[in-house]
Amino acid sequence: MGELVFVGLGLFDESDVSLRGLEDVKTADYVFAEFYTSLMAGLSIKKLEEKIGKKITIVTRKTLEEENGESILRKAETSKVAFLVAGDPMIATTHVDIRIRAQKRGIRTRVVHGASIVSAAMGASGLQNYRFGRSVTVAYPEGGAASETPYNVVAENKTRNLHTLCFLDVKAEKNQFMSVKEALEILLSTEKKKQQHAVTVDSLAVGLARVGALDEVVKADTIKALLGFDFGGPPHILILPAPKLHFMEAEALIYLSGAPQRINEMVE
User: What band does 22 get if pLDDT is binned at 50, 70 and 90?
Assistant: First the structure.
């Protein structure tokens, strides 16, 4: 019987992988990796291959979504296969689907979890994780029209006094990674149409860039201020806080994220 081991690589570069993950990759017969669902800004495939002593086969969106990961599953039927994924492997539904397919074929599966942007972004912002509502992805407009779903999720969460974590669109095959500014502009464009005052230029937002890197950036301010703030290179992620803050959340945003003192007015 073969085995398919999903290994989370963490957030930034090849040094983020866990010792357990490294051991599994070194003992694998085949090593695959995908980087279209997320970006590891400091990753060097060459350095990672030197670390594990094996060649890594990079798979594309087509391999996993259109071909259902068949090339990986065939190898895993009779061999140990390590599948490397940025962040934590089971955050993306694509990987959950591949794991289910493997189990149905009698292939043993395991997961070696890695640092996830979900918990890392919450922690870096200083906002309390149990106060986050449904998360959402802000996608690039298709056919010139932006999806209203991200705005609706933010609006719903705010009515429940919850924070919203917004993933930003990644089109790795086009080397296109959405910025905080682009995401805010998309949300503001929906605000103009819906006028529910859920996302305005005066709303508090937290932009994060390259979380986990030495040059990590976390900045909290009004959307108007963040539109002109330079976050540097990708990947970026965005948080829209709840209308009311716990006093410790406000302090964290002020002292850890550079938010203006006036957000103390949001403390409940």
Answer: very high
34, exposed or middle or buried, with CB in 10 Å at 0-12, 13-18, 19+?
buried
Query: Beta-carbon neighbour count of residue 62 at 10 Å?
Result: 10
Q: Does domain 3-112 have CATH number 3.20.20.450?
A: no
Sequence-ordered strand ranges (E) for 25-179: 30-34, 57-58, 80-85, 108-112, 136-138, 164-168, 170-171, 176-177
State the pLDDT at residue 79.
97
* CATH number for the domain whose boundaries are 117-266: 3.30.950.10
Give the strand pairing for 204-209 and 217-222: antiparallel
> How many residues in the chain?
268
The model carries a pTM of: 0.92
| pLDDT 10s digits, 169-182 | 988 878 899 999 99
Q: Taking a C-beta distance cutoff of 8 angstroms, is the pair 216, 203 a contact?
A: no
